[in-house]
Every structure is written in structure tokens, then in C-alpha cells.
Design a protein that fits this description.
The protein is built from 11 helices and 6 strands.
């Protein structure tokens, strides 16, 4: 059975994040306001186990996924850890490798190998995936870096550009490379010109190669969605850490409010797709057959809800919002709802 790198890479990143969190818990300086439910000795044991898993993951991926011939990272790796497939490259996968290797470099601080692996991906983003003629990042390219058309068109997405910003900002944080930061800033500016909705706020997901937004959506998919919005929140948070720009701060704060107060329901889960004015796309009053047919547009995504609880708290912290009880309450509601796993509460 073939396992695509996008799903495996996602697990690798979460393992890495958990390792960082757990390693912080092993320090002698424990915050007084954090409940200490796990004994210190157990936290150290868990941290060692997680670091061991992280070591195995990183050693499995790198340098196996490094495409030394064409640049970037291989995308198709089977369950036997063998290269297999066309090796088409997606902006999200490429940027996640950049981010993961950069953060791993900062976490380990042992040598420059992981930073070199991250720099390898930055070069592919810059030289192949960035559209030098029209700006913005291509969503997909072939192994050699030639843009791949979808339904005869070159499509750009806010989602993909968000991940590029995310990876580039992290690499700048790990290396101090100002060229990477400039490219992240240029991508942010491109989204501002082409994707930002000055009327209702937020960002349109789909754009033409030239940057014309499809304000009514694309091929039956609504123009705005939670997935692109939460990853814009995540990427702007990462960028603001290294570039505290006033306009970026304004947009980050706006995205935090949209995710917390508009996308997240009172029950503690996120609606998934929206019209331009943020009216949720809902099929809850339709027949069972219609609901099943449109499941991708209207269901509870528990994993995203837990992820977003963290992303909101992270954004609030980076913004320096003091006593952000509104964000904490919403984050707790989301995690509580996911832990209950109660789909019926949607009704």
C-alpha cells in the first residue's frame, strides 16, 4: 500500500511539536499557573520517548526525500520507504519540509545539516514555485518544477501561499537569511493585492495565475473556507515572530477574530465552507442522501478543531494580547467538544 508523504509529513510535524512542548516541561522552572498533573520524572520519560521517535522520523525522511537532481523534496514514497511515483511537487508538502527541517535545526542545534536541508527547499520555492512573471506561488509543479495545470488552468490558492510564508519565515528564524524573509514578505504583499477581501474580511481561496480572485468560488467549491483561513492565521503568526509589521499585525488580529468568532460555532466546532460574506455552507436540514453527497462541505472535523485551539492561543500569544479570556474560552470549548466526539451536538 502506497503512503503519500503529505500525510506522513503531517504526523512528523506534530511529533516534532509535541517533543518541543514535552522538553519544555522537563525544565526546572515550571510556571505556577500551569497545573502539574504529570510528575516531573514521568515528563522526562515521555520527553525521552518522544525525542527518540523524532530522531527516527527525521532519520527516515532526511536525506531520503532530498531531490538532488531537480531540487526540492520527493513527494511519493511508499510504505517500504522507497521512492515511487511521478514525484509531482505540491507547495504545501515542499513548504512543510522547509518548516520542519528549520525547526528541527533550531531544536537540536547540533550541526548545520538540517538547516542545509531546509535551505534546499527554500531554493526550490524561490526558483521553481514562485511565479516570477505574475507573482505568487504555483500550487503544483512536476518533478522538474514546471507548473501543472488543473482543468486547463494554472490555479493559485491562498492556502498554498500561506504554507510558503510559513516555511520561509521559519527558515529565516533558523538561519537569519534575509532573502527568505523578503520572499515571505513578497508573498504576503501578493495575497494583500489579490486575495484579501476588503469588503467582508478574510481571503479568497482561489485565484487565476494573474491573481484574479474567484469571488464566487471555483468549480462548485465556495470562495472561503476554514482550512485556508486557519493556515493563513498560522503562517501570519510565524511571519509576525520575525517581522512585526503593522499591517501584518492588523491582518493577524483580524484572522484570529474571524476564526474564533465567525468560523467557530457556539457548540465548539468549526463550520467548513463559506460564501463571501461568511455565511456558512450548511446541509444540516437536507435529506440524508443530500447530506452524504455534500459531506466534504459540511461535517465536524475534530482534528482541525483541536489544531485550531492551539493556533488561536499561539496567535494571541504572539500578538501579545493580555488576558485573552475570549480566545481561551473558545479554545477550551473546541477541545472539550472534540474529546466528547459528539457529532449530534451539531444539530
Amino acid at each position: 500500500m502506497k503512503t503519500h508523504s503529505r500525510s506522513r509529513m503531517g504526523r512528523s510535524m506534530w511529533i516534532f511539536l509535541m517533543s518541543i512542548v514535552l522538553s519544555h516541561l522537563t525544565t526546572d522552572r515550571v510556571r505556577a499557573d500551569v497545573p502539574q498533573a504529570i510528575p516531573q520524572s514521568d515528563r522526562r520519560t515521555i520527553c525521552r520517548e518522544m525525542e527518540s521517535v523524532l530522531d527516527a522520523e527525521l532519520n527516515s525522511w532526511y536525506p531520503l526525500c532530498i531531490d538532488t537532481a531537480c531540487g526540492g523534496y520527493y513527494s511519493d514514497i511508499n510504505s517500504r520507504w522507497e521512492l515511487e511515483g511521478r514525484q509531482e511537487k505540491m507547495i504545501v508538502t515542499q513548504a512543510r519540509h522547509v518548516w520542519s527541517a528549520a525547526n528541527a535545526a533550531m531544536f537540536y542545534q547540533r550541526d548545520n545539516v538540517l538547516r542545509t536541508f531546509s535551505a534546499h527547499g527554500v531554493a526550490f520555492l524561490r526558483d521553481k514555485m514562485w511565479d516570477r512573471e505574475c507573482g505568487g506561488f504555483y500550487d503544483r509543479v512536476n518533478r522538474e518544477g514546471e507548473p501543472v495545470r488543473e482543468n486547463g488552468q494554472l490555479i493559485k490558492r491562498a492556502y498554498g501561499n500561506a504554507f510558503a510564508i510559513y516555511g520561509l519565515a521559519a527558515y529565516h528564524g533558523a538561519s537569519g537569511d534575509t532573502a527568505a524573509l523578503r520572499l515571505a514578505q513578497e508573498s504576503f504583499a501578493w495575497l494583500e493585492r489579490h486575495s484579501y477581501d476588503s469588503l467582508y474580511g478574510g481571503y479568497f481561496q482561489f485565484m487565476s495565475r494573474e491573481g484574479t480572485p474567484w469571488t464566487e468560488g471555483y468549480r462548485g467549491t465556495p470562495p472561503k473556507d476554514q482550512n485556508s483561513t486557519i493556515h493563513l492565521l498560522e503562517s501570519f503568526t510565524e511571519l509576525y515572530r520575525v517581522w512585526p509589521d503593522a499591517r501584518l499585525r492588523e491582518r493577524l488580529h483580524s484572522l484570529l477574530r474571524i476564526v474564533r468568532d465567525t468560523i467557530t460555532t457556539d457548540k465548539g466546532y468549526m463550520a467548513l465552507f463559506f460564501q463571501r460574506d461568511w455565511t456558512p455552507v450548511s446541509f444540516r436540514d437536507a435529506s440524508a442522501a443530500v447530506r452524504q453527497k455534500n459531506y466534504e462541505f459540511d461535517h465536524v472535523s475534530f482534528g482541525h478543531d483541536v489544531e485550531v485551539a492551539y493556533l488561536m492561543l499561539e496567535a494571541s500569544d504572539v500578538l501579545g494580547i493580555r488576558d485573552d479570556s475570549a480566545t481561551r474560552r473558545t479554545a477550551k470549548r473546541m477541545v472539550d467538544h472534540a474529546l466528547r466526539g459528539d457529532r449530534k451536538q451539531r444539530r
